[in-house]
Amino acid sequence: MFEGIIPALVTPFKENFEVDFEGIAKNLDYLERHVNAFVPAGTTGEAATLSYEEHIEVVKYVCEVSKKPVIAGAGSNSTREALYLAKEVEKAGADAAMFVTPYYNKPNPDGLVQHYSKISEETSIPVIVYNVPGRTGINTTSDTVRRLAEIDGVIGIKEASGNLKQVAEIIRATPDDFILLSGDDFLTLPILFLGGKGVISVAANVAPHIMQEMFQAFKNGDIEKARELHYRLMPLYDALFIDTNPIPVKKAMELIGLAAGKPRLPLVELNEQKTEKLNSVLKELELI
């Protein structure tokens, strides 16, 4: 259920910065036939500035509209808050929930194991760990992931450390049915070679068909084609991180006619110079 090309959905906003649910539906319609699942209310979905009520409503709406599996963002640096969100997104209809490793308070490995154990004990929703040291300040090592994989209900990890050695160590140390998904678009193909199952992707919001073509080429053993598509997508990967995510991807979606709106403060809209560069990349890929 949880493999392949999985866009980390943006949360489109109206001019008054209220959630644009019609915009979500428009984006899902664009993506649906090209992707394998969806992740609403994650980092790319600006979960940090959504209220709990908005967070849950976005997840519920995606579950109602989408025909694909839904992995709901549900993380917090408070175990109590993460548990609350887990229960709410489970009631909303999500097929799994993704929990970022607690940020700012920087728990040690024992704290991480207890955090995910508590969530798994008190809910029945499948749990996906999200390791993104650049945002949380801590790295969930392969040894810690091995311990987390022993918890009933913890089924996989979105790995965004950028460290391919760590990715390989995790895959080697965990059971065959433990799912490792890339959290970095650029590393999608290398991680597939190592045994990863797919990617939770920013770029798939914009070019889902090209990313799916690359994934299918890899699965079919057409390595040359997969590599060719990887290099074709590289300028897009770079352009979508020309500023803090999701600033560039929201602008890219606007440029190709999808729903996005400006990000909520403290994030601001992409500046003119960076927008010109992004526009050029989108034209090269024939997206506009």
Q: What keyword list fits this structure?
A:
globular; alpha/beta; TIM Barrel; 46% helix; 288 residues; seven-stranded parallel beta sheet
Oligomeric status: single chain
Number of helices: 12
The overall average pLDDT, rounded, is 97
CATH architectural designation: Alpha-Beta Barrel
Query: Largest beta sheet: what is the strand line-up?
Result: 1-7-6-5-4-3-2
Taken together, the total number of domains comes to: 1
> Over the alpha carbons, how many angstroms does the gyration radius reach?
18 Å
The secondary-structure class comes to alpha/beta
Quickly name the level 1 CATH class: Alpha Beta
Instruction: Give the fraction of residues assigned to helices.
Output: 40-55%
Which geometry do the CA atoms define? globular
* CATH fold label: TIM Barrel
Helix and strand run: EHHEHEHEHHEHEHEHHHH
How do the helices and strands line up, and which of them pair or pack?
Elements: E1 4-7, H1 21-31, H2 52-65, E2 71-73, H3 79-92, E3 96-100, H4 109-122, E4 127-131, H5 133-136, H6 142-149, E5 154-159, H7 164-173, E6 179-182, H8 188-194, E7 198-201, H9 208-219, H10 223-239, H11 247-255, H12 272-284
Parallel strand pairs: 1-7, 2-3, 3-4, 4-5, 5-6, 6-7
